[in-house]
Amino acid sequence: MRVAIDYRPALRARSGVGEYVHQVARALTKGYPDDSWTLFTSSRKDRPDPDVLAACVGAQVSDHRVPVAVLNFFWHWLEWPPIELIAYGSYDVAFSPHPLLMPARHAAQVVMIHDLDFLKHPERTQREIRRDYPRLVRSHARRAQRVIVPSRYTAGEVTQHLEVDNDAIVVAPPGIPEWRQPVAGFARDGYVLFMGTLEPRKNVDGLLEAYGRLLARRASVPKLVLAGRVEPDAQRWLDAMRRPPLAGHVEHVGYVDDHERQRVYAGARVLVLPSYEEGFGMPAFEAMSLGIPVIASERAALSELVADAGLFIVPEEVESIVAALDRVLTDPDLAESLGRRGLARSRPFHWRATADAVRGAFRDAMEARSRLS
What we know:
By secondary structure, this protein is of the alpha/beta class. Helix content is 43%, strand content 16%. The strands form 2 sheets. Strands 3-2-1-4-5-6-7 form a 7-stranded parallel beta sheet, with helices on both faces. Strands 10-9-8-11-12-13 form a 6-stranded parallel beta sheet, sandwiched between helices.
C-alpha cells in the first residue's frame, strides 16, 4: 500500500490535529514497514523537524515551500494540483487529517473530521476554516471513500449533519502518550491547569470568569496555568490575566512541546477543559493517563471519553465551573478517586490500535475506489 499523508498540521506547535497525525504516522510506519508512507509538507517558512520525523521510521518526506494559505485555496476550491503531481509520486491512498479532500488523480481519498464546531459555530473559527469548511465539508465528506473520526459522538454528528453513510465512517480514537517517567498522580499542592489552544471554542472566557469568582470567595486558591498556543482572538484573555482580580494568580506558559508536557501535567492538581465542543478531548485524556482529576464539559465527546472518571460542568454556566473547581480543590478523597478512575479508563487506548483502525480505513477506501473504476 502506498499512502500520502498530509503532515502539515504537525509542522509547528502541534495541537490536537497535529498530535494525532504525527502519532498515527509514527505508529503506521513502525507497525506496517512493508507499506510505503509519504509525509507531505508545505509551508513558506516552516520546515519539518528532522528529530521529530526520525520517529516515523522509513517514511519519505515530500517537502515544499508553497505557503499554506495558497495551497489550501487551490486544494479546497480548485481541487488542484493532485497529490500525484505536486509530490511526484503514485499513491493508493491520499489521507487528509482535515475535513476537506486532498486532491488526487487515482488514489482513494480519506478525510478526518475531528468535530463539526466550524459548521455549527463558524464565528468561533479563523481564516480559511471559516471561509472554506462550512461551504465545502458536506460535498468533500460525501465524496471521500472513508471518513475517519475520533469518537462515536463525532461519527453521529457526521451522519446527522453531513449525511455520510455509516459504512463509510471509521472510529479511530487516539492513544495515550508514552510518558517518559512513571505515573505519579496529581500534585496535591499543584495548580489548576488548562491545556489547549486559546480559542473561543475552548470557553476561555468562562474559565477565567469562574476562576475570578473563586478568588473572590476563598482565601486561598491555587494558581491557574493556561498552556497552549494562542489564536488571534486570545489577546483579550492575555490582557485580562494582567489585570485585577486575575493578575498574579493566572499564568500563560504558551505552547508546551513533547519534552515538557509531562512536567506541566505533573504539577497540576486538576485539569479543567470547559470547551463548548470537542471531537475527543486529548488534554483530558492525557491528564487521565497520569492520574490527574479532570473537570470537563458535559458536551460532545467529552462525556463519552471521561464517563465516570471526572466531574462534568455546563460550559455556558459559570457557576457550574466554580462549583466543580471548589469540590475538587476542597475534597482530596474525591480528587484521589477521580485520578484512579481516569487511569483505569485511559489504559486500553494505544496508538498502535489507532494505527490499525486507520490502516483498515485505508484498505477499505482502496476497495471502494476500485469499485468506482
